[in-house]
Specification:
Blueprint lengths: L12 H12 L6 H7 L3 E11 L2 E7 L4 H10 L2 E5 L4 H14 L4 E5 L18 E8 L6 E4 L7 E3 L1 H8 L12 E6 L7 H17 L9 H12 L2 H5 L1 H16 L4 H20 L3 H28 L8 H29 L2
Antiparallel strand pairs: 1-2, 3-8, 4-5, 4-8, 5-6, 6-7
Helix pairs in contact: 1-2, 2-10, 6-12, 7-12, 9-10, 9-11, 10-11, 11-12
Length: 344
């Protein structure tokens, strides 16, 4: 049995999984619209929370939040479960697929996914896939993975392994989610767009300065810390921290620049949907900031690789981060004022 859901690559796995599930119920929303309505853009730098032994830097909300936010906003009822027993987790998955015949989102660890090339695997327990079928004879599950170019299959044994992966930041416990009921039609998205923009802006700039680890405060905090990495950690440890930051920027989900580009696309789509042309200007500004995040990743990679003839320093990275932080703070404050003027 396999549900008839078209495979579509996406920039970010959770957006892609949500899009696949919603399409099954006749709701075809773009990836940028899902990301924007769910207020997925965020930033946090948390030195005391470790991933692979190094501080966590994240450019989006916590995994699972997007699904909860977008479905609640659209009036869609859902269920999310975690399990202590692996057999129970797989039985419920089979029941939803074979008896209810609905798609199921699963949060998995990337390291043990058999269809992912070895060089791209790392211990990240936040990857989302959509399971849409099972072959009763072979026991293979059909999966939509936004990182793949087409539908893929995975054995029951491997699916258990990735659903209960232990490496990474937090245990998965077989987490999966699905839709239990949907409305006859979607609500008017235009007022929801401005409410979502206000939420994103608030998440990025509403914290007082002493809360240093989140929003644009977090970007400025990282700009301060990164200048002293070599002197406080030594060259090797500083390089490893820099490599971790580059990976969070460019490889996990869509990373720092990528999420800015997705949000810029949301603002552009929102301008067309609402008729508020000013949103296009903010879209262009967000795209330009995304380009600067890419510039940061480029310079950081050159420092890490120690290319001859290139003299980028940690101070250069700090300066660029400070500039990005100040630009994002100005953008989100101005965008918030615009959004609040259009909220009913």
């Amino acid at each position: 049995m396999e549900l008839n859901i078209e495979h579509r690559p996406a920039a970010h796995c959770e957006n892609g999984a949500i899009s696949s599930i919603l399409r099954h119920y006749g709701f075809d929303l773009s990836e940028p619209m899902i990301f924007g309505l769910a207020s997925g853009l965020f930033f946090t730098h948390i030195p005391f929370v470790k991933m692979s032994g190094m501080p966590v830097t994240s450019f989006r909300t916590f995994p699972g939040v997007l699904f909860k936010r977008i479905t609640k906003m659209l009036g869609i009822k859902t269920c999310t479960r975690r399990y202590l027993n692996k057999e129970h987790a797989m039985r419920q998955l089979d029941s939803l697929l074979m008896e209810s015949q609905i798609p199921v989102g699963c949060v998995v660890g990337m390291y043990y996914l058999p269809y992912v090339p070895i060089e791209y695997r790392f211990h990240f327990n936040g990857h989302n896939i959509t399971v849409i079928g099972k072959d009763q004879q072979t026991g293979l599950y059909t999966v939509l993975d936004t990182n793949a170019t087409e539908k893929v299959t995975i054995s029951s044994r491997d699916l258990v392994k990735v659903r209960f992966a232990k490496g990474g930041t937090y245990p998965l416990m077989g987490q999966m989610y699905w839709v239990t009921s949907v409305p006859d039609r979607l609500p008017d998205l235009r007022p929801l767009v401005f409410k979502a923009i206000h939420t994103t802006c608030s998440n990025m700039v509403s914290q007082p300065r002493f809360i240093r680890i989140v929003g644009t405060n977090g970007i400025l905090y990282l700009s301060e810390r990164i200048r002293h990495w070599e002197e406080t950690m030594g060259k090797r440890r500083a390089g490893l921290n820099l490599a971790q930051l580059i990976r969070m920027l460019e490889e996990i989900g869509t990373g720092g620049a990528g999420f800015r580009f997705v949000y810029a696309a949301f603002l552009q789509e929102a301008a067309e949907l609402t008729g508020v042309g000013e949103l296009n200007e903010y879209s262009n500004r967000m795209t330009a900031i995304g380009d600067q995040w890419r510039e940061f990743a480029y310079k950081a990679s050159r420092i890490f690789k120690r290319r001859e003839g290139e003299n980028f320093t940690y101070d250069d990275l700090g300066d660029l981060l400070h500039s990005i932080g100040m630009q994002e703070e100005a953008l989100f404050r101005e965008l918030d004022s615009l959004a609040k003027n259009h909220i009913p």
